[in-house]
């Protein structure tokens, strides 16, 4: 059977406030064509279908239109979809009874019985061959939230050990169902040890509180393929070809400028064969000027002299401008937008860098010391930390004027 693995579509995402409907539609149209040309039997989508838990009506329509078109070109295709951390598990599962009649299986919720035991049957999706015999058992594991995985006593890392225990128990459960000639695959939406991450992945992990990582050893060696989502860079894990992130189909940040966004395709009988990545065409490119931060006057010159292909069409490329500043720059965005006037690019991000400080700026301040600090002291520390220079007299005078007006108002 031929399988395609993808993940992290993030339908409905805004890229620095720019709508991405066109890009998502281009990807889904490309994916439909790829399912047809590659003669795919099974489509695995490992989480983060949508960018937010309450997607817009147009995002939902795009998703279900894709499912309809995929089934239309191949009524026998089997599709397994799991929920990611951006998805609402219950909302994604809502049309499950209707979709299963079309061999579309969605797993978002980890169900438990009255005693708190996980219902592993609900996480198990049988995949059939042309003779309607079970050929593959898929452990369709969604993003696991607190309370989803087993609670272990006296363990050093409840999350890591709990998730590892869930995959172990799920594998043991499916081995009771597995017969000769059948194989096992798994899905997951999680962060594994040693996975390479983008800037957006790093930021999200900080927001989530630095959720612990899962070792590659959590997946039993008899699982023939592990289709992972959550990390946006396509990669194999633990040096093993069969444990993979497919990566996101669209660039999610400028740190992904040189990524090759892709889907993974392979054949699975008793073992994996003909595993390959298929690169996804870029519908709206990312552009960075300059490649490394430069002083503002040099950057303005580069932008004013920006050369563009004559045949470029909308939607225009996203642009990140990188600037090196010595201190605050009034009306910075206006100056850049003026230099870009008439250019066929869309200003998405201004990345400003300042000279690195050689001073030790970290200082522990006791509550007593904090009470003694005046507003000007705090402003001075923040300014020094950010710009690595003394506060200019003009800015200092403005700050003192503002604090004086605030004090007068308070009286």
From TrEMBL:
Residues 1-233 form the Calcineurin-like phosphoesterase domain. This is Nuclease SbcCD subunit D. CDD domains: MPP_Mre11_N. Belongs to the SbcD family. GO terms for molecular function: 3'-5' exonuclease activity; endonuclease activity. It holds the Pfam family SbcD_C. The keyword Nuclease applies. It comes from Flavobacterium bizetiae. The keyword Nuclease applies. SbcCD cleaves DNA hairpin structures. These structures can inhibit DNA replication and are intermediates in certain DNA recombination reactions. The complex acts as a 3'->5' double strand exonuclease that can open hairpins. It also has a 5' single-strand endonuclease activity. Keywords: DNA recombination, DNA replication, Endonuclease, Exonuclease, Hydrolase, Nuclease. GO terms for biological process: DNA recombination; DNA replication. Residues 284-386 form the Nuclease SbcCD subunit D C-terminal domain. Heterodimer of SbcC and SbcD.
């Amino acid at each position: 059977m031929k399988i395609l693995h993808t993940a992290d579509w993030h339908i409905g995402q805004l890229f620095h406030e720019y709508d991405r409907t066109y890009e998502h539609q281009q990807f889904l149209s490309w994916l439909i064509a790829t399912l047809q040309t590659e003669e795919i039997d099974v489509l695995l989508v490992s989480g983060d279908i949508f960018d937010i838990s309450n997607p817009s009506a147009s995002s939902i329509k795009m998703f279900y239109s894709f499912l309809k078109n995929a089934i239309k070109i191949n009524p026998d295709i089997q599709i397994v979809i799991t929920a990611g951390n951006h998805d609402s598990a219950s909302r994604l599962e809502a049309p499950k009874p209707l979709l299963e009649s079309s061999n579309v299986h969605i797993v978002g919720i980890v169900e438990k019985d009255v005693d708190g035991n996980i219902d592993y049957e609900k996480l198990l999706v049988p995949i059939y061959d042309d003779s309607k015999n079970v050929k593959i058992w898929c452990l369709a594991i969604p993003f696991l939230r607190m309370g989803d995985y087993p609670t272990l006593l006296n363990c050093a890392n409840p999350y890591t050990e709990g998730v590892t225990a869930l995959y172990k128990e799920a594998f043991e459960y499916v081995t009771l169902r597995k017969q000769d000639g059948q194989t096992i695959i798994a899905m997951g939406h999680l962060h594994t040890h040693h996975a390479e991450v983008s800037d957006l992945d790093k930021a999200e992990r900080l927001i989530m509180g630095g959720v612990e990582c899962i070792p590659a050893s959590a997946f039993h060696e008899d699982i023939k393929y592990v289709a992972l989502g959550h990390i946006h860079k396509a990669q194999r894990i633990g040096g093993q070809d069969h444990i993979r992130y497919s990566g996101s189909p669209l660039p999610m940040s400028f740190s992904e400028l040189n990524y090759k966004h892709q889907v993974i395709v392979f054949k699975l009988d008793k073992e994996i064969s003909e595993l390959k990545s298929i690169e996804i065409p870029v519908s709206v490119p990312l552009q960075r000027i300059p490649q490394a931060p430069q002083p503002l006057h040099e950057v303005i010159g580069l932008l004013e002299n920006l050369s563009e292909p004559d045949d470029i069409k909308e939607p225009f490329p996203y642009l990140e401008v990188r600037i090196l500043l010595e201190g605050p720059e009034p009306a910075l965005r206006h100056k850049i937008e003026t230099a870009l006037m008439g250019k066929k690019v869309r200003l998405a991000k201004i990345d400003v860098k300042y000279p690195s400080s050689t001073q030790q700026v970290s200082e522990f301040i006791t509550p007593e010391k904090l009470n003694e600090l005046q507003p000007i002291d705090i402003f001075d520390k923040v300014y020094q930390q950010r710009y690595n220079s003394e506060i200019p007299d003009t800015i200092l005078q403005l700050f003192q004027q503002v604090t004086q007006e605030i004090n007068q108002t308070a009286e």
